[in-house]
Predict the 3D structure of the following.
Amino acid sequence: MTAVSSRPRGSSQPKGALAESDFAADSRPDEAFGEAVRSYLRRVRGGDMGSLPAVLGLIVLFVVFGLANDRFMSALNLANLVTQAGSICVLAMGLIFVLLLGDIDLSAGVAGGVSACVMALTIVDAGWPWWSAMAAGIAAGALIGVLIGVLRAKLGIPSFVVTLAFFLGLQGVTLKLIGEGGSVRVDDPVIRGITINNLSVAAGWIIALAVVVGFGVLEGYRYRNKKALGLAHPPLGVVVARVIGVAAVILGVTYVMSVNRSVNPNVEIRGIPYVLPLILVLVIVMTVVLKRTSYGRHIYAVGGNAEAARRAGISVDRIRVSVFILCSSLAALSGIIAASYAGKVSASSGAGNTLLYAVGAAVIGGTSLFGGKGRAIDAVIGGVVVATIANGLGLLNQSSYINFLVTGGVLLLAASVDAISRRRRSSTGLG
Amino acid sequence: MASSTEPILELQGVNKSFGVVHVLHDIDFRVYPGEVTALVGDNGAGKSTLVKAIAGIHPIDTGTYLFEGAPVTVHRPNDVSALGVEVVYQDLALCDNLDIVENMFLGRELKNRGMLDEARMETMARDALKSLSVRTVTSVRQTVSSLSGGQRQTVAIAKSVLWNSKVVLLDEPTAALGVAQTRQVIDLVRRLADQGVGVVLISHNMVDVFEVADRICALYLGRVAADVKAADVTHSQVVELITAGRSGSLGLAPAEAAESM
């Protein structure tokens, strides 16, 4: 047998002068800021809209609800909004992994319910400490993910059918665990604290500033590096705009959360709810996994063209099982956050519109239902939009039928935007 | 002369059956480094089966598979790619949602402390395209969905340069392309061979074959009708070899040709 080095040959090629058409766009010293904006607008018109509709929609929602009800913009309500969005965002993050492969997990919501139930029962009945109960809950979620993933990948049952079966079956499991109609209280101070306790104001500002500075330094470092090596890079203006945008959002949220939001003048409530840094950590980890590791790259590849991925030596089945495990594990965490917010786990935990909210969040944020396109941050942007709708309509004292109609309508709208932009992308040849 | 050197890849007396259907009969096939070997034949002549046998997708029943003069056993596609043999399929197998660099390194990403080494991958991908004088791609960070058919073919072929392949099999690379794009791909095939790679070109297009091939191997009903230098035969002789299995003194003996009918 001949040993063939896997060292690519390209590096040993002599570097010739570049012809004008040779990757002209890459080697052009610095694309002007205006040109970058124009090419972004071109991409948007071509159907590559990303999170733009969600961000615009969020602004519209804030204006409408803010005008309709003066309590909407109060610090108390905004803090409430953040904790409401928490479980939706985490569930949507899990779903994004599955959606990236072009699959769906309809059982994610109730998988979260079962997991929260396992956690609550191990605390109440078995007297476990919070951390081992939480681990047991997440392990229960992971186990559900293994079963779904194996049935989908190895038997080839469409994910829609497998997870619909689990959606029904897992509700039975929750009922059996809790007992008909009952509920289990979640009193553990740490678990409850995820949503009802806050960081101190000083800690909140320190974390916010550290994140902003860290992000700015990282972006600047990467820009300088890419430029020095002559790699494709966005113009400096875009990098600066991105850093300023992220800084404005993070510092703005920190400011709002640092205002005293108590309605009782004798008590002071201020600081960032613990769930927010938890989501921030999850977003950062998930972004690194998806964009900076070969595992993440393989997820995109399988979602884009499973046959090509298989020929490139990627184990498609293994990737598929792993994303269902990740999805159900994150769903378990989401169920635990929801239980923390509600203070109890009931037979209907995770059922109803929980899943619809999360799928809606992912799609509204810009993740495609057709696979191969999506980012971790989509879950947060979309999750905030969905939570804003639920929160705003709740404040307006609308009957719950309106809430269902509006959320269903928004999901349909987001899916239509996704389908149309996909068609436009393929007709304009943009990615 | 290139043909005086040792073949880099050689099949001797290869047979392959699917159930009772005997598809390949005692195939002798050689690929020389630095040469383009065209594999021609009518539909059903066994071209695809032969390529898949070389690629390790269909293991051979009997016969010898030699690589660089030494017999090798091939069971899976991975065995073949480990030898340095790359197959560029007709349907290309690229991921539309990934960019050029990501596609060229798919499944073999370079890593630096566990993270993807984007800088090195981008530089190498660009150098590989440059070494093939690819001039039609504006940015290596374009997604593949924005590329034309010819550009996609180019990316698929450049991948084999990147990975230092010794033999590249191209399955109908020009089948779906327009005139100018076909031109680009044919030039690319030539440059690939000039870099010392053994290239196998499967094609129905005689113009392309005569333009770029050094040797022509014609299959007729699962047998090698002729394995000749392109300079020694004419266009019409090759067409006769493809359609009838023989042409004048070339090709299968009449009895053999009739037997395989």
In short: Chain B touches chain A through 59 residues (CB under 8 Å). Chain B has one domain: 2-259.
